[in-house]
Amino acid sequence: MRFVLNGHPEDVDAHPMARLLDVLRNQCGLTGTKEGCGEGECGACTVLVDGDPVCSCLIPVSQIEDSAVVTIEGLGEDHPLQHMFMNEVGAQCGICTPGMIMAAQVLGPAPTLDEIKAALAGNLCRCTGYSAIYRSIKKWKISTRELTPRRRDDA
Amino acid sequence: MPAVGNSVSRKDGIGKANGRALYADDITFPGMIHGRTIRATIPCGSIRSVRLAFDTTGFTVVDHLDIPGRNIVDLIEQDQPFLVEREVRHMAEPILLLAHENAETLNAARVEIEYEEAEAVFDPERSTQLLKSIDIVKGDVDAALARADIVVEGTYRTGHQEHVYIETNGVIAVPEAGGVAVYGSIQCPFYALKALKCMLGPITKVRVIQTETGGGFGGKEEYPSMIAGHAALLALKSNRPVKIIYDRVEDMIATTKRHPSIVRHRTGVMRDGRIVAMDVDVLLDGGAYITLSPVVLSRGCIHAAGPYRCENTHIRGRAVATNTPPNGAFRGFGAPQTEFAVEVHMERVAEALAMDSVTLRAMNALTPGDTTATGQILREDTSALMVLDEAVRRSDFRRKRESYRGTNKAIGLALFFHGAGFTGSGERYLKSRARLDLTATGVRIAVGSTEIGQGTRTMHAQIVSDALGVPYGDIEVMQPDTSLVADSGPTVASRTCMVVGKILEECAHEMRTTLGDLSPAEYHAQHGAFSVERQYEPPGWIEWDDATYRGDAYATYGWGCDVAELEIDPDTFEVRPIKLTAVQEFGRPIHPALARGQIEGGTAQGLGYALLERVVMKNGAMANAQLTNYTIPTTLDTPEIDVVMLDNPYPGGPFGAKGLGELPMDGPAPAVVNALRHYGLDVREIPATPELIAQCVSY
Amino acid sequence: MLRDEPGTPIAGATDLYVALNFGTLAPKTFVDIWSLKELRNIYVRDDVLVIGALSTYTEAIRSPHVRTRLPMLAEAARLVGGPQIQNRGTIGGNIANASPAGDSLPVLAAADAVVVLRSVNEERRVPLTEYYTGYRTTVMRADELIVAVEVPAVDGTQWFRKVGTRAAQAISKIVVAGVRGSTTRVAFGSVAPTVVRPRETERLLTSGASIDEAVAALGREIVPIDDLRSTAEYRLRVSGNLLRRFWSDTAPA
Asked: Are the C-beta atoms of residues B600 and A131 closer than 8 Å to each other?
């Protein structure tokens, strides 16, 4: 089974019905993608398949043959939106955060609040009440538009 | 620039956001195998026989006979077993443990259990088994009711609530020299340690290490001790690391929920609005074992009269047993139930008086010098009127109350308070400790308080930084490992900032005295490492009598007023929250952005409790144990939350801080239901689902 | 393929793992049809909107043909799950899964859609209203595959309303689609073992009877039940309310 994982070719030996989530976590060693419910309800396992956010807990690995999969690890360890989630407290416990960040990747350069809400409607967060997540994304978009990714270290 | 009061960068680092933070299920150990729990499928009865209907080759099988010490999850009372011996008291009660290296083989294993069923009790009002009762008496309530102009009565009900931390429960037990180490998603590592020691006996060495924890809300306070015990038994028997991760269904069916409640009020008022008598009866459904029900009931009862002055108060509380999984700790700990009741009741009292409910609240709100139901004389840090005034002003409450009338919109309000820290003498008995280590690289905080999303690491480091006069960046926070950190008590009861933060502040002052004018690095270079460890001393003025329930129930209280604005669909009876104004006073925020997050998150959880979250019980088990059918708010269900944080410092807290974590949970449900009342619906129960609301609307 | 590998076809798999995990579907042989690109287009042929079975909800939302000819389908698709599910769930899958709560089914039923079934030897067309024979049972044979759904031009004003358990990621408690034109067509989901076209209700509305009469007829034509998500009483009452809302919202100006 071949696919492109975070920009690199990947070859895994897995049962065709194995869930993409399990293949990523157990065979590819990428544990940034989380399981919250196993039924596509919480979005913690969101990854991009050919650019679209999907729930990796619902995808048989056979269906990503020759596709491009991007996980949270594929954004690197230092993505500006990752910093915004920490600084703006869009991440509290952090378990939904990788999925949120992946779901937010489809947003345009200046999303409205309604667009952000719609894009994240498939991702549950129990800590934040979502407001801080909107702030994280808005500040990320503003910083991206200013072309100067900045970090806020108030300390 | 001081660290305290500023939203400094968090000690969590970026791992939570880039996927590198390791939660229990992300961790493996060499040779690790998987563990599974075989659970009861009846709510009440006894076991006749257990048969392993599978090839046991390669399996480790554990039952209660494998327990070397006591088969008791040691908590308040010692009544709940790790594994059923004979008597089954609730659905999903653990009976047998299996482990195998192959997860599929493990899950395919079939165990046949024969039971003798007995009649189960599910209705708390029909339960005859009392777990705990409490009586709070102030003045003469009967005499006062007799002379009141009007007596208003009412019964209010709240349902179970499931925590829905997005990370399900999970632990890994790893055999090590002389004993076992347990890693896991655990709010209170020292609770788990205590339970493990009791279960394993004195010869086994045990330590508990918290892994990154994907939410708790009280749901990982006591139950992880059970899972830790199970994993430890399997690990010790197989002599291999054993991982137990609950899937969502198992987590929802087996673990704790918020206690359902039935609260009855009889309130005597004079025509001018003065409350002269409050007679309150609180009934909590504790589930099948005592676990934390006595203390949940205690906090519930102490808050049952609401933030109001009343010289004649009688609060009777009972927690009773039913054949359902034990209910347990959940953010608010009994107070959201009783404050829902009293705040909806206050709205009805105002209706009975034909009086504006804000005026009624303002007239009776607790102010400094007033006494609470337990006779506690409130001090200057009492802010009921301040939060009420600000919420009314900020939300434009009075104008909207008029302009929404006759439309599909409605607005309602709730005033509430929340005692910070353990109740009564709790902190005195607890004797929490905190430690600061001076190391070669700076100063290290060594406490058992856990970071579960609320910001423990950051907020403690801020307090130490400013109290010690050392840059925030030089403060390090240890991951809790019970063999390495001081037992700072459980991470519960809104005590982690106010109580543990206070001990750390004192440790920092003592360390500063030792350092003199030197920086930590200079001191270390000259004199080497040292540590400061101190124990919490509650303020000297606190007096509490457990026998009579009289005295200073809490060192201080946080105060809040929520205003809910809703839109009701007259066709479908769906309720859409439009805006929630949350005005809260909790001393002083240590980290404003994290504090705001606590208020926004707690408010959203409260909105779910009010409108969406319904646990459907069938034959004593949660029938809708899926995130599809137990619905928490999504982005589209959560309105704008306008947060106002007001200051009123508590002199006994670090930098004036009080507890905050639970306060925001108390207000949304009554504010929402009071808005529904404004719309004309006589709702006295939550969750106020469309189905329930439809019953309040005539055809 | 159909001849060689008899098995349950899987498309977006958004319901599949749920069924497997929760024991409502026994593990069996599956045939993955996700990659059959020819089943993934949406086009208009002879004034008929053809939606390939593997078209996802996202594709339906984005399709200009759907937006102009069947806007109520786009509306329904937007309310299925969240974006992740919309990116993967398919219209054909929604039909095949045969849940009475399927969000697109009342739309297709009200629009007189026809299901195109293909086996190795033949292709046949079954109106959606005749496709279901009972709770989760259909006329589809084991050797058949849903390849498309065809929607003739819709005459009249379209109307859609989903009442879910919450605002997103919700399963329908009631889902209604209606078309008000020279005839009136309405379809209800989650109120009976299958999606329902209440013919007597439609006849009354078309013939100019009062809405009260139509609501009364509707009460006789749907058979809602109590389940984990709602109650029969609520579903019955709200179905009537929504019929009234449909009627007033679509009233000629």
From this structure: yes
Nearest residue on chain C to B638, judged by CA atoms? C167
**Segment C188-202 mean pLDDT:** 98
Within 8 A of B571 by CB-CB distance, chain C residues are 238, 241-242, 244-245
Chosen for mutation from C14, C169, C176, C226 (greatest number of chain B CBs closer than 10 Å) is C169
Q: What is the pTM of this model?
A: 0.97
* pLDDT reading at A155 higher than 60: no
Q: What pLDDT is recorded for position A9? A: 98
Question: C6: pLDDT confidence band, cut at 50, 70 and 90?
Answer: low
Name the residue in chain B with its Cα closest to that of A37. Answer: B248
Element (H, E) at A136: helix A131-145
Could you give the angle at the alpha carbon of B335 between the alpha carbons of B332 and B341, nearest 5°? 135
Amino acid type, B153: E
Helix, strand, or coil here: C43?
strand
| SS3 assignment, position C134 | strand
pLDDT at C225: 96
What is the C-alpha to C-alpha distance for residues B43 and A18, in angstroms, rounded to an integer?
A: 35
Give the minimum alpha-carbon distance from A84 to chain C in angstroms, rounded to a whole number.
23
Which pLDDT tens digit goes with each residue over A14-65? Answer: 999 999 999 999 999 999 999 999 999 999 999 999 999 999 999 999 999 9
Give the DSSP letter string of B380-422.
S---HHHHHHHHHHHTTHHHHHHHTTTSSEEEEEEEEEEE-SS
- Give the C-alpha distances (Å, rounded to integers) separating B183 from B227, B241, B421: 11, 10, 27
Give the pLDDT confidence score for residue C1 in this predicted structure.
43
Instruction: Identify the pLDDT of residue B698.
Output: 86
pLDDT of residue C15: 87
**Rama region for A129: left / alpha / beta (φ>0; ψ in -120 to 50; rest):** left
- Tell how strand A2-5 and strand A68-70 pair up: parallel
Kindly give the interhelix angle for C211-221 and C199-206, rounded to the nearest 10 degrees: 170
Q: Both ends of chain A: CA-CA distance in Å? A: 48
Q: Tokens 């192959």 sit at which residue?
A: B102
What backbone torsions phi and psi does residue B70 show, to the nearest 5 degrees?
Answer: -100, 140
Secondary structure (3-state) at C198: coil
In angstroms, rounded to a whole number, what is the distance separating the alpha carbons of residues C45 and B676?
51
Helix (H) or strand (E) holding B254: helix B248-254
HSE on the CB side for B145, CA within 13 Å? 14
Residue with tokens 């180490």: B181
Dmax (CA) for chain B in angstroms is: 83
Which pair of structure tokens corresponds to residue B288? 């099948």
Provide the β-strand partners of residue B580. B564, B641
List Cβ neighbours of B484 (8 Å cut-off, separation of 6 or more).
B446, B478
The letter for the amino acid at C235 is R
d(CA A99, CA A102): 5
Q: Is the Cβ pair B6, A154 closer than 8 Å?
A: yes
Which residues, including other chains, have CB under 8 Å from residue C127's CB and lie 6 or more apart?
C112, C113, C114, C115
State yes or no: pLDDT of C4 exceeds 90. no
CB B183 within 8 A of CB B24: yes
Chain C residues within an 8 Å CB radius of B634: 82, 166-169
Q: What is the pLDDT of residue A151?
A: 52
> What is the C-alpha separation between B138 and B375, in angstroms, rounded?
7
> At C26, is the pLDDT very low, low, confident or very high (cuts 50, 70, 90)?
low
The Cβ of residue B672 has, within 10 Å, a number of other Cβ atoms equal to 31
**Beta strands at B640-646 and B575-585: parallel, antiparallel or unpaired:** parallel
What φ, ψ does residue B263 adopt, rounded to 5°?
-120, 130
Residues of chain B with pLDDT under 70: none
Given a contact cutoff of 8 angstroms between Cβ atoms, the answer to whether B263 and B156 are in contact is yes
Quote the pLDDT of residue C243.
98
Q: Tokens 């959940």 appear where? A: B330
In angstroms, rounded to a whole number, what is the distance separating the alpha carbons of residues B668 and B19?
Answer: 33
Nearest-angstrom CA–CA distance, C67 and C52: 16
